[in-house]
Design goal:
CATH architecture of the largest domain in chain A: 2-Layer Sandwich
CATH class of the largest domain in chain A: Alpha Beta
Number of helices of chain A: 14
Radius of gyration of chain A: 30 Å
Largest interface: A-B, 48 and 48 residues
Oligomer: homodimer
Helix content of chain A: 10-25%
Structural class of chain A: alpha+beta
Strand content of chain A: 25-35%
Largest sheet of chain A: 9 strands, mixed
Number of strands of chain A: 34
């Protein structure tokens, strides 16, 4: 088909939109693909719709190849199913909620596990009906706190979400693998390099999960990988736990004055200056146990303080902390929190409680000081440890007295914890948990996510089938998502130059962009001829036939729009020649008018 | 392509859904096309999606042929543009409203005039850019008071909405005509007979509007048509106003006792018995002036009482009343309304005010009694008249005294009104307003609606372009809607029999439904051969290859699903023959296996 620019709903813009934070947003708006309607909410113009539909077609074909059936759910859903699974609350402020005229509660669905589960419950009842994989391509809603980066993190966005239903774990493995394979084919067709990383199941509450990340230095996600093939996002990385060390022969703990050492650096300096290690090796931050007070905010509004002890050379990683404490949101304790736990609050304890800068798990007068092992009346603050703090390891840590630390405090001997937690940052060189050597950190963009949900949703909503023996068994599920509009933005983010977009052919809005330059009627006729020949060869042609627009503007628009192949009809027409311009390489090749269609076949 | 029922996400149901009020809803649920998620909110199963997409494809093709460009707007939109045009209020409870986490107001759009207007304002600025027609196929939301009839009146529904932009009235006429022509082609391709009727622009606030109605006795809309080619829906029908009559020689009005005559029938009987007409002709209901008290409820919550005087042989038509008083909702005055206007409320007036059953525009002691012409302190109740009540017409009407009516009360002489209003029912035989003879009433279903909006939205939102003389002119717009999911339901409503659906070929989920019956491997092989031959001929085939399902169940499912052509492979296969079963006529024709594809070409 030929689409004529002289009669097309398109305006390219000279200026970048003022609210664009990323390249894809800037270029998609300027080139006339999308327009912003509200923060994180966009309208699709004709060019944008074309690219979106091409991506959707590829996704549909591969879903079909994976044996998945297409359905389509509403965005507006009643509260009840989400209430049953707890997600009505868990989503917190991220969920768009509304009431109808009768006062009933509804939501704009951010994902559809609940209603897919109920649909299958409604229609199926036997193991013979399974396995089943169903999917939709549908507009979803999340009330992001900071909708940003254009389509990369919108509040209304199009997703392909698929769900699998099996009655055995092996069945789920197979369904999961089929979707995972489909994702590999989809990203290959889209020209998107990917890494599959172990992921944290997070709010989905599943048992196994992997993320497809596109590795790129401009990615917002961090992941780790080892030369030996391990890959995980930072949330899912698990620390290799060292062996415990026998207590025998370890010196007793000793409280020493360490004035003005409320930071790790000042503490290490003071320790080396005033309390050198007996064997002469200098103390380092890794010898200290840092105790960080975190505030957890749960979806129901509850707020809990926890203290986490971790080696002093590691920071708390916000994403790992959020994953570890999901569904709670995590923030550093604030001044009010410290104030509320100031000296004198607990009867019978002299000295301080949370003495900022000098917090530790052990108190010189009271022994075990933090966590449920301490005193029953202190159980409102849990004490959790980094997995590296195994029994027998000795630490310099706060003595819970202003200006004092305790040296040689031994885990397992002098203090215990309520549990272990993975909130410490991952670093280059940390050992991969599967023994495949040290990991390195890299950045990427999430382009897909597959989850083994297991039986959580089926159990909550009562989805059971009769197995071969006539026994009711709970179904086990998988959930598989690709953000269609997000992927479009990622492709735009990765394929551009200073002059505009450069689409991969598989998703380009048109196959060829034919440009007629100048005012010479013969040129326009030649361009018509070329466009018609390309159309006859099955190409989708964008034809810049605007009569009164200068060649410079036309070239600028062609570069901005980013159709990968441009054909320019200009002066060469007199000699029967046009130019084929490769948008990506910039190379222009003269070709006889009669041979253009063949050259681009 | 071949779709195998042995591996398809489909369950037909034996029982009708308990909440189904209409045939289409009942059959679409039973045959596995849709599932209800909430009142007026449905999920689309694979069969339903296929039909929906076929309708959408036809609509897209004809929009393309009409020169309209496809875009896609979000459903979630900010309040501001709708606030500016007044529709944030006007939609009243019919609008789904919500707030984001920052407390900003949003709506789920019921229609998109505002944002299309702003988009064009954003991108275009010259008459050279016009005319422009853009459209989308998109999910819309209306919080219907009584979502009912399945997809016929849902709260989430898919619509094609197109908008045209011109800078001259002649341009708007042409754009309107192009869409109107496209609608004719669409309905023809969908096999939907239609009547184009003059419509009331209603809440859209436009200047000219037509509705496409499918005439059917089960339609929920009433329209009128004359043999001479006039057609209008009842809201848009305008009464032919009789000539005024000179007052000269008309007898003075006379108050007469008419005990127990609070209804028109009792009044006519009493008048004939006790106060016969001087010339002996019997009084009829048409001689009486009925005064109906209506309560208008405005979107902003305001409530107003009006009294409407109309010939006693006509009832108030609710739809005409709603159209006349739009955007107010109209309901009969209630007991509280009458109570609030009981005797003694107004100083200086003896007797009663709204004396139920005896209300009239004139009072024996006070003269003009109702409306703004009466007393300044009564201007809170407007008095409006049916257009037939022209000056010089005489009436029997309430005397505002219990048990009394006034006879020979002459309009224009004894009383006047604050205006005229079209709320009286239309009846068979009423004259068409264009002089084309008497009209007859018919029923239909709305399948499309085209509006000339004029400059209302462009004016409110400041959409202007420079004309040929460099002068800024306000753009004039049209709005054109087709309910895709509603049309699907209407097609289902019109095409079925006791056994199930019967799709027109243009929208059937598959072209052919091949059924293999029995357990004979040869039959299944023959069916495979037929399916493959049909696929090779470009047909979309649904193949019932389920191995252990009885022929009766398979036939039942085939009838319920409603693919128009069914091919049955059964015993005849031994003789090289299958049957082609025309779902609509029921006729079964034996055909050689090798000739099926040709027979169905």
């Amino acid at each position: 088909m030929i689409t004529r620019l002289s009669n097309y709903f398109l305006r390219t813009l000279r200026e970048d939109p003022s609210d664009a934070e990323v390249t894809s947003h800037r270029l998609l708006v300027r080139a006339g693909y999308i327009r912003r309607q509200a923060p994180g909410v966009f309208a699709w113009l004709p060019l944008g719709l074309r690219v979106k539909e091409k991506i959707e077609r590829i996704v549909r074909e591969e879903m079909h190849n994976a044996g998945a059936h297409e359905v389509h759910f509403p965005a507006l859903l009643p509260r009840e199913p989400y209430e049953i699974t707890g997600r009505w609350e868990e989503y917190g402020e991220g969920l768009f909620r509304l009431k109808d005229r009768k006062g009933s509660d509804y939501l704009l669905a951010p994902t559809h596990e609940e209603v897919f589960t109920l649909l299958v419950k409604d229609l199926y009842n036997s193991y013979k009906d399974l396995p089943l994989s169903i999917y939709q391509i549908q507009d979803k809603y999340r009330d992001e706190a900071r909708p940003r980066a254009g389509l990369l993190r919108g509040r209304e966005f199009t997703m392909k979400d698929a769900y699998s239903f099996d009655y055995t774990d092996a069945g789920l493995d197979a369904s999961y693998q089929a979707q995972r394979d489909a994702y590999e084919r989809i990203f290959t067709r889209l020209g998107l390099e990917y890494v599959i990383v172990k992921a944290d199941a997070g709010a989905m509450g599943g048992s196994k999960s992997e993320e497809f990340l596109h590795p790129t230095p401009i990615g917002e996600d961090t992941f780790v990988r080892s030369a030996g093939g391990y890959a995980a996002n930072v949330e899912a990385f698990t620390t290799v736990v060292p062996e415990a060390i026998p207590f025998d022969g370890l010196a007793p703990a000793e409280v020493l004055p360490t004035p003005d050492t409320a930071t790790i650096q000042t503490l290490v300096d003071a320790a080396n200056a005033n309390h050198p290690r007996p064997d002469g090796r200098p103390w380092t931050a890794a010898d200290t146990l840092k105790n960080v007070v975190l505030a957890l905010r749960y979806p129901d509004g509850r707020r809990e303080l926890v203290v986490v002890g971790l080696p002093g050379d590691r920071e708390v990683d916000q994403k790992r902390a959020e994953a570890a404490f999901s569904p709670a949101e995590v923030e550093p304790a604030n001044e009010d929190d410290f104030k509320a736990n100031e000296p004198g609050l607990f009867d019978g304890i002299a000295g301080v409680y949370l003495t900022k800068g000098y917090i530790g798990p052990w108190h010189p007068q009271h022994g075990q000081f933090l966590g449920e092992q301490a005193f029953p009346d202190r159980q409102n603050i849990r004490y959790l440890l980094d997995p590296r703090v195994v029994p027998g390891t000795g630490w310099i840590t706060g003595a819970n007295e202003h200006g004092h630390h305790v040296f040689g405090l031994v885990a397992g001997r002098d203090f215990t914890a309520d549990g272990f937690v993975e909130v410490a940052e991952v670093r280059d060189g940390d050992p991969a948990p599967n023994g495949s050597g040290p990991v390195e950190l890299a950045r990427g963009m999430e382009i897909g996510h597959v989850f083994q949900l297991g039986r959580k949703y089926a159990e909550a909503l009562g989805l059971k089938v009769l197995d071969e023996n006539g026994k009711l068994v709970t179904v086990t599920m998988g959930s598989y998502g690709i953000g269609v509009t997000r992927i479009l933005a990622i492709i735009a983010e990765l394929n551009n130059d200073a002059n505009g977009l450069i689409w991969p052919p598989s998703v380009a809005p048109f196959d060829v962009h034919v440009v007629a330059t100048g005012r010479d009627a013969a040129v326009f006729e030649a361009a018509e001829t070329v466009a018609a020949a390309l159309e006859a060869a099955g190409k989708d042609v964008l034809f810049d036939d605007r009569p009164k627009v200068s060649p410079g503007v036309k070239f600028g628009d062609a570069e901005l729009i980013g159709v990968p192949t441009i054909v320019i009809a200009g002066r060469g027409v007199a000699d029967g020649v046009v130019e084929i311009w490769d948008r990506r390489t910039g190379v222009r090749t003269p070709v006889a008018i009669s041979e253009v269609a063949e050259a681009l076949a």
